[in-house]
Amino acid sequence: MASGGFRIKVVRLIRDEWFLGVSYATIGLFSLLGEHAYSRLSNPFILTAVFCWLFGVVLGSCLNVVRHADGVAEVIGEPYGTLVLTLSVTTIEVTSISAVMLHGANNPTLVRDTLFSVIMVILGGMAGVSLLIGGWRHKEQSYNLQGANSYLGVIIPLAVIALIFPNYTVTTAGPTLSSVQQIFVTVVSAGLYATFLVLQTGRYRGYFTVDGPESAAREMDHPRSLTRHAILLVVYLLPIGLLAEELARPIDYLIETLQFPAELGGVVIAIIVATPEAIGATRAALSNQMQHAVNIFLGSVLSTIGLTVPLMLLISDLTHHVVFLGLSGANNVLLLLTLAVSVVTFASGRTNVLQGAVHVVLFAAFLLLIFEA
Questions:
Q1: What is the C-alpha separation between 315 and 326, in angstroms, rounded?
Q2: How far is CA 30 from the centre of its chain?
Q3: Beta bridge mates, 142
Q4: For residue 350, what are the β-bridge partners?
Q5: Strand (E) or helix (H) holding 79
Q6: Distance CA 22, CA 341 (A)
Q7: How many Å apart are CA 124 and CA 354, to the nearest integer?
């Protein structure tokens, strides 16, 4: 009986975690045959196949990371569950940016492009779709106004300091920061994020939860093995760095050889990072759990700025890669507009379809500016 039960557990584990084998097998395959494939990227079919396969495997690994982060969240509850999710995704983001940045020709705008893309994908696309489908099904949905204001109160100054402030400093040429300014941005970003976390998980924990249908729905969740989910979360995280390093090769070819927009690298990373969270936020909105959705997309933006900026400034300094942080052209206006609209959207404690439509329009403007600046 004991061996039969063990066999069932093994079969179930293989059935649930088969993609883990795909991730590690892909690493082995490209370690052996990658150079041969990369030497033939001029063939559009090979380029498409290599890019799509690597993109799909990285994205699939990220989806499984988020799945196990959600498993941890079900056990430990809010706001710690969302915190585990956002920290996991931030790890993916930093790993992916570093892998792409350290390959091919130096792309000084990659960090900036990725940060801006993540903000627009989340506050534009993810928030817009969540509000649209949630409002369509439930008309109006409620969330804790104090929590949303707390998020935005930190997001707005950090976003402006990181992505607009460098355009107006004169100590260094171009949209860059001096050493002292980098230290200031690093300390301020990490410090404000740490302060936010202390308050979110302590004195003001109630700001990030809401009473009613959402609380009842969360209470019905069945606890799962915390240890199992935590271990598998880490195991799925480990190959992402190597997979992103392989994905950097076709991305570099598209940008450097085929002259695709330089923002492509940032957009690809943003899609990889945001898609798992977008799925989680959409499901939450459909289930009338808007507070959970708000925690996901606002928490993701905050962790992207609060953690990714300091880490990438540190990595760029250690690797001697120049980083341009200041946005250019119309993107400055679009960022400020998106932040302003987000303040209006999350100013009442209730959401509706119209607000979702506005955010989707902002996301469409972002996509337009990539190709028609």
A1: 18
A2: 26
A3: 350
A4: 142
A5: none
A6: 41
A7: 13
Rounded Cα distance, 190 and 351, in Å: 30
Tokens standing for 171?
């100590």
- Residues 105-160: tens digit of each pLDDT: 567 888 899 899 999 999 999 999 999 999 888 888 888 888 889 999 999 999 99
The answer for residues whose C-beta is within 8 angstroms of residue 268's C-beta and 6 or more apart is: 55, 247, 251
How many C-alpha atoms does 219 have within 13 Å on its Cβ side?
Answer: 8
- Extended beta strands in the chain, E state: 141-142, 350-351
Two tokens, residue 342: 């987000």
Is pLDDT at 262 greater than 50 in this prediction? Answer: yes
Alpha carbon separation from 61 to 110, 237, 338 (Å, rounded): 22, 7, 30
| Token couple for 224 | 């799962």
Peptide bond before 79: cis, by omega within 30 degrees of 0? yes
Q: CATH number, domain at 220?
A: 1.20.1420.30
Average pLDDT, the chain: 84
Separation of alpha carbons 34 and 38, rounded Å: 6
Q: Using a pLDDT cut of 70, give the percent of the chain over it.
A: 91
Domain that holds residue 206: 2-371
Q: Which residues of 242-252 are buried (b: 16+ CB within 10 A; e: fewer)?
A: bbbbbbbbbbb
Which of 301, 366, 293 minimizes the C-alpha distance to 153?
301
Residue 126 tokens, joined: 């993810």
Q: How many structural domains is the chain composed of?
A: 1
pTM of the predicted model as reported, rounded to 2 decimal places? 0.86
pLDDT per residue over 290-310, tens digit each? 888 888 889 889 988 888 889
Question: What 8-state DSSP symbol labels residue 42?
Answer: T
Beta-carbon count within 10 A of 120 CB = 27
* Cβ neighbours, 10 Å, residue 155: 24
- Based on the number of CB atoms within 10 Å of its own CB, is 182 exposed (0-12), middle (13-18) or buried (19 or more)? buried
Give the angle subtended at the CA of 97 by the CAs of 92 and 100, to the nearest 5°.
Answer: 125
| CA Rg value for the chain | 21
Is-contact 213 288, C-beta < 8 A? yes
Mean pLDDT of 34-55: 90
Residue whose pair of structure tokens reads 């955010």 in the numeric block: 359
The SS3 of residue 3 is helix
> Residue 319: its pLDDT value, please?
81
